[in-house]
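Researcher: Hi, I'm a grad student and pretty new to this. My advisor asked me to get structures for two proteins we've been looking at. I'm not sure of the right format, so I'll just paste the first sequence and hope you can take it from there.
Model: That works fine. Here's the first sequence with its structure tokens right after it:
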Amino acid sequence: MNLLAIDHGDKRMGIAASDSLGMLAHPLEFINAQPFDKFLERLKEILVERETEQIIVGMPRNMDGSIGPQALKVEDFVATLKKSVVIPVLTWDERLTTVMAEDKLREAGLNVREAKKRVDASAAAVMLQDYMDSISG
């Protein structure tokens, strides 16, 4: 199953995708969040190019599992996204994915500037891999 993950941000949206077997996630790119119509246009291009069957959006829960202000923004984003695409959209807990992505980029030897460019898509990949691992049992 071809999956696509979105790490929602106010400025940038990180995009990651699965391989065609749905076993490995990899970062693709980030898309500027605004203007939203441009974001949606690029997202739809990626969905078609990758023959995406499902979108997973990271839900930024607090460490205690509660929902904070950023999670409310994500809920609004998901509601809008569901009206804009014809494939299923679901949310997945993304706690600590950015921290893990930053650690991986640092381990890869990227400087701060390069890591900043890649962290959103890398966080989406960490979250997507977690989702795929959970459904594969």
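Researcher: Oh nice, that was easy. Here's the second one.
Model: And its structure:
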Amino acid sequence: MIVFKDVTKTFLTKKKAIDDVNFTVENGEFIFLVGPSGAGKTTILRLIFRELLPTSGSIFVGNIEVNKIKKRQIPALRRKIGYIFQDFKILHDRTVAENVAIALEILGLKKEEIESRVAEVLATIGLKEKDDYFPSQLSLGELQRVAIGRAVVGNTDIILADEPTGNLDPKTAWDILKLLVKINREGKTIIMATHNLDIVESLKKPILFLENGKITKSKGKLY
């Protein structure tokens, strides 16, 4: 479960990136954060991932109060969370399989287990036949699949997706969304930030609408 209680984040410019935000995401839920650029969507994801600290309020991931943990506890928190970045953050000198394997190498897993998990994930994301391809040989949609594979390979409980369909054509965007739905059905909690209402309205999932850092309305049970 992810809980935001009266959360405000103010940057040095005095601008409130998010302002008195409250919501709850149950385990295994799939929710959308919807709003224009600068609405606060990415800030919410970064707060959950503990890249940022709130100015006020409390954030819980399970029984962990994220804003109160010590620096040495952050890696343990992040092992529960996969982050799909808007700009992919793919290493261009590594193959598809090597990019997906990075998360497991950081965890210190044995080579045999890494190879087994990577093969399983590549099958899930539809890139099993391109395991030895380099990023320059892939389409944008395939690069996004690599980013998704890297986010789920560590058996994470939560997936944070920041505009994962933002740079894709409509058909490829829909394929990526279907892949995320498939991963959600395996029990992962997914929070996806997007400004694409067409994609959001194609699924009957809870939605938080944000504007200027405030929740303006919601659909589904999020409080």
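Researcher: Is there anything I should tell my advisor about the second?
Model: You could mention this: The helical segments are 41-48, 74-78, 96-107, 111-124, 140-152, 170-185, 197-201.
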